[in-house]
């Protein structure tokens, strides 16, 4: 297990570095950042001044290492728009996004796993078909459209929930449903197929041959093995959810890091965009790493690898 | 000898898109305490479905019917799922054909050994653990106590099958069903496992049903033999009778397929049975083997019954006596000694 953990950790660090280089190079993707920052009426002297101020006059690799060195210490420079340290902005906004992500994940799992289990146990029954329908609809429906529908229904027709803002838990209900529902079908289908697979396996037959009750067979012997791929998917989905939060937070005007990213992109606030992207990616990498460890714990066969 | 299990007219059918597959078609047999019954037959003749039917562990779409399945004095057909769960793994245990996949990869050997006995018998965790260690040693696993913490993937196929045997014995069953316990293992391990099963049977005085397609295995371990063909038992009797006087043309064909030390010359061709097994979908009248049988006549297509040619040696062949007379004296495998493991 120790060797396995070390290997995974090394891989995670390598991926983090690669991603950081990509995020950094985004800065130059849209042309010269100093010119963009200086604005349309700036003269050559202004641009030179900005270059010196932001260090754009140094070689790219020096800039990158300086930036990365700052990043690992939580130092992302000043926000061009807000005129305050980027890190303070993020610390202020991140809890909202995390709150949204975690509640959406819980919503998705709590909905998807029991449905997947039922669909597998009563294969081809009404409940299986209903679950399939839910999955198809969920996959086909654009999340922003679903968000707007929910706002129309629950904020205007039956005004029981707020349509925008992030002041109370009620503000999180609709965004959680939209973001979570988006991830539900994949979890549900994976639980269903995984469980069907496992239920017809030889070791489940062994468990039944021991005289274990159907509940013991399902929860002890079947579900644990069926859930392994779901754990991996949960990490990936959480990453998608962070990305999704950019749209959802914007639609619901939820003041999280996703909304911040969207605002900053439209304001050419490079340091902020870079910081949010980098943190989102690193967060995603850490999650994948933790999912690997959890998987190894669930599935002893992986541990030796 | 007290009869442990007695089965009358067991049928297993599976509805398929092409029609109903009658995989087991009315078989009857008995096993007594301390006795080994070998069910032998080629692949697909319904051996595994028969054993799963006894445990009531058939695939969900398969249907089981029988006139009676009496086990330890109770009629299994009348037990509900709950009652059956009390029998499974407790008084009737089973070892499967696939040792590599029959253990749950997520739990330790100890966990899987102990859960059954904790459920069926009123024992403490410590007693269950001691029983597990005792049985692991019995099945020839060294350093038993430390094995309890190991996971299935850390064990070889032979060891896993030994663990499966130990697991089946945890509650001290009256009947042990072994479905081709050695087919997936290599030859040297096969012999060891068979020996082990035979020894344990004597020690624990169990009834054993051993399923195999290997007549060599039958010769080593069986007390009685039932030969299956296309879902029916076509011949049964004590092992000495079957080997010295195989009567059904199919049994004779099977005997021709095994080499006999001292009789089969180097390079001599072994027999094969020409033709193919008939489809088991739909109804079948007459003898299932008729299309491959050298002795088949019109009478073989009439409905037929199983009858004794001598007491305790039953054959399902309309021309059994004639076949026996025709083949007398040319019995190839008659020298195989019965009963004792080699
Ligand atoms: N779940 C199932 N669905 C459909 N057909 C099945 C199923 N299980 C078994 N059968 C069919 O029933 C017949 C008997 O199968 P069974 O597994 O009992 O054979 P077997 O004698 O154990 O063979 P083997 O020696 O290969 O293990 C075969 O023709 C098989 O194809
Ligand atoms: Mg089989």
From TrEMBL, chain A:
Localization terms from the record: Cell membrane
Pfam families hit by this protein: BPD_transp_1 (PF00528), BPD_transp_1_N (PF19300)
Keywords assigned by UniProt, alphabetized: Cell membrane, Membrane, Transmembrane, Transmembrane helix, Transport
Domain ABC transmembrane type-1: 94-291
GO biological process: transmembrane transport
Transmembrane stretches, start-end: 9-29, 98-120, 132-157, 169-188, 226-255, 275-298
Membrane topology summary: Multi-pass membrane protein
GO cellular component: plasma membrane
Family (UniProt): Belongs to the binding-protein-dependent transport system permease family.
Protein name: Peptide/nickel transport system permease protein
Source organism per UniProt: Thalassobaculum litoreum DSM 18839
Automatic annotation (TrEMBL), chain B:
GO molecular function: ATP binding; ATP hydrolysis activity
Residues annotated as transmembrane: none
SMART domains, per the entry: AAA (SM00382)
GO biological process, one term: peptide transport
Membrane association type: Peripheral membrane protein
PROSITE patterns recorded: ABC_TRANSPORTER_2 (PS50893)
InterPro entries: AAA+_ATPase, ABC_Ni/Peptide_Import, ABC_transporter-like_ATP-bd, Oligopep_ABC_C, P-loop_NTPase
ABC transporter domain location: 5-255
Cell membrane is among the record's keywords: yes
Family to which this protein belongs: Belongs to the ABC transporter superfamily.
NCBIfam families: oligo_HPY
Protein name in UniProt: Peptide/nickel transport system ATP-binding protein
Organism of provenance: Thalassobaculum litoreum DSM 18839
